[in-house]
Specification:
Layout (H helix, E strand, L loop, with lengths): L1 E4 L3 H9 L5 E5 L2 H11 L11 E5 L13 E7 L3 H7 L5 H9 E13 L10 H10 L3 E7 L2 H6 L3 H8 L6 E8 L10
Parallel strand pairs: 1-2, 1-4, 2-3, 4-5
Antiparallel strand pairs: 5-7, 6-7
Helix pairs in contact: 3-4
Length: 186
């Protein structure tokens, strides 16, 4: 199962590219998911995607049954409490986000450093350290480019990275939740 946060375009594209996977989109605002959800439930002959599912929930209130189910969790250009959770904050959102990723799974994040938007300046190395303290391993940390926003189907990311404002950077982090060691016979 793969989980993605956002307006649903990435979820639909991912579900179409991986029909063998269940792809779940999560957003705190139902309106952000409405169009994608309507498309997903369309008849298969009208490009419906029966493997796409949408959940309306804030990160700190994610349903417990989603814990340890995701092979891949993607978050693209979050803001508010989701951005706080992704940056490794100590609140319940970060714990819920970490709980989604099963051992052996990955968390892939595109996050903007937007001090003019009233958010704290992002220190990507501190973010990686916070996730490492939660048991994740940093697999990749680099500045995000326009190609990353295009691959994420993020119109906001494309606007942000096509003509970045001074001081506004974006980062790509890939974190791995190491597999649980198997127990040998005693």
């Amino acid at each position: 199962m793969d989980l993605g946060a956002g307006d649903g375009r990435f979820v639909l594209a991912h579900a179409a590219a991986h029909p063998e996977r269940l792809v779940v989109g999560i957003d705190a605002h139902a309106a952000a998911l409405a169009g994608a959800a309507r498309r997903a439930v369309a008849p298969h002959s009208h490009r419906g995607l029966p493997n796409a599912l949408f959940v309306v929930s804030a990160v700190e209130a994610l349903p417990e049954p989603l814990a340890d189910l995701a092979d891949l969790v993607t978050v693209h250009f979050p803001w508010g409490s989701l951005r706080d959770a992704i940056t490794g904050g100590s609140g319940p959102g970060a714990a819920r986000m970490a709980a989604l990723v099963r051992p052996g799974g990955r968390l892939e994040v595109l996050v903007a450093n937007a001090p003019r938007d009233g958010t704290a300046v992002l220190d990507p190395e501190a973010v990686a350290a916070a996730w490492e303290a939660r048991g994740f391993r940093l697999a990749e940390l680099r500045p995000a480019g326009l190609a990353d926003a295009v691959a994420a189907h993020s119109s906001w990311g494309k606007r942000l990275l096509r003509n970045p404002a001074p001081g506004r950077l974006a980062w790509r982090l890939e974190l791995e939740h190491p597999p649980t060691p198997s127990r040998g016979a005693d």
